[in-house]
Amino acid sequence: MELTINNLFSEAAQELSEAEYELNRPLEDVVVFAVCSHTKEAIRKMLTAFLAFESLNENNSSSLNEKLDELKQLGTMMLFNECITKQQAFGSLDASALECCRGENNHGYSDYCLEIDQVRLCAELGRSVEQTVRTFTGF
Question: 7: which of 16, 66, 104, 119 is 20 to 30 A away, CA to CA?
Fold first, then answer.
């Protein structure tokens, strides 16, 4: 089944909604790992959708599926930086929330944050990314 850009963006919006739903639970019930993973996946999908959209507008010779496969190989920060080169508005977003796990941590999950304040920042970044992508793509 061919994954369209719009489907990818819809999946991202759903992931972000799931993260926010989890954040709105009573503090003692919040599964911080779930918030982090849903938010990071949402941001990754939104950035990928934006770059694929831009690629189509540039009349790139590669197919949509080829472009999506290429983008899936990039890390989230690489995607973010590529978005900045395509649209300066991404540069005004503070992407430092995505780098919360670089280096040592005490929980053994090197790619995920397990601090509630940190995942809240990441979810806020997710909404900002969503708004920026919507502004420039019409999704």
Answer: 119
The C-alpha angle 96, 81, 33, rounded to 5 degrees, equals 40
Question: pLDDT tens across 5-46, in order?
Answer: 889 999 999 999 999 999 999 999 999 989 999 999 999 999
DSSP state of 25: S
* The one-letter amino acid at 77: M
Both structure tokens of 123: 């979810």
Asked whether 73 and 85 are in contact (CB, 8 A), the reply is no
Burial of 18 (0-12, 13-18, 19+ CB in 10 A): middle
Output the six-digit token pair for 116: 């509630």
- The rounded distance, in Å, linking the Cα atoms of 101 and 113 is 6
d(Cα 12, Cα 48) in Å, to the nearest integer?
Answer: 10
Instruction: Identify whether the C-beta of residue 20 lies closer than 8 Å to the C-beta of residue 120.
Output: no
pTM over 0.85: yes
Task: Pull the structure tokens for residue 101.
Answer: 């796990």
In the block, which residue shows the tokens 């989890």?
A: 22
